[in-house]
Design brief:
Length: 166
Amino acid sequence: MTYSVETLTAEHAADWLKLRLEGAELYPLGFLITVEEASEMTVDRAAEILSFGGMRGLFFQSQLVGFAGYRPERLARTRHRAEVGPFYIRTEHHGKGAAGDLMMAIVDEAKSAGVEQLELFVDTENARAIGFYEKFGFERIATHPDGVRIDGNSRSDHFYNKKLRP
Ligand SMILES: CC(C)(COP(=O)(O)OP(=O)(O)OC[C@H]1O[C@@H](n2cnc3c(N)ncnc32)[C@H](O)[C@@H]1OP(=O)(O)O)[C@@H](O)C(=O)NCCC(=O)NCCS
């Protein structure tokens, strides 16, 4: 399947909002936001967030089928690093290389910008996402206890990073 990746802008706000809500509903371990928080966001607010340029979209036949946050650090002392996430691909595109295309586009963009380390957090029980990140060379560095509470229940997440060679 042929996928393309582009930076999401205000014009993608309505589609991105729908996908984000779908992701929060289907994969609670994959998102920090609750379904209620995802439902409350307006298209205008989504447009404002996308206008900052920190979200990459994955397209299949001109439809948005996935997205990933990509946030390079700006300060002199930390700009070798960038944070990735949230990372979401619609279920029908799982296991088809879609997520890999999105990740590789981010890796290429980061390398071109001189970023040397990608970083992310993933719930310790999100086995599929962990399998995906490890397949792409992310290494587990630490576990963050009680980093998230879902309906009052404490959860932990792993901190992963991937070194990029310029
Ligand atoms: C995480 C996500 C982007 C990965 O995309 P994907 O297309 O499903 O990933 P892939 O199929 O390429 O890779 C997953 C790997 O984990 C493996 N895997 C699947 N389930 C697994 C499990 N229960 N335990 C261990 N490994 C597992 C798969 O076999 C695959 O490895 P392989 O290609 O060597 O067989 C996608 O599943 C998704 O959007 N999930 C919902 C949102 C989410 O959880 N996002 C992550 C937030 S941190």
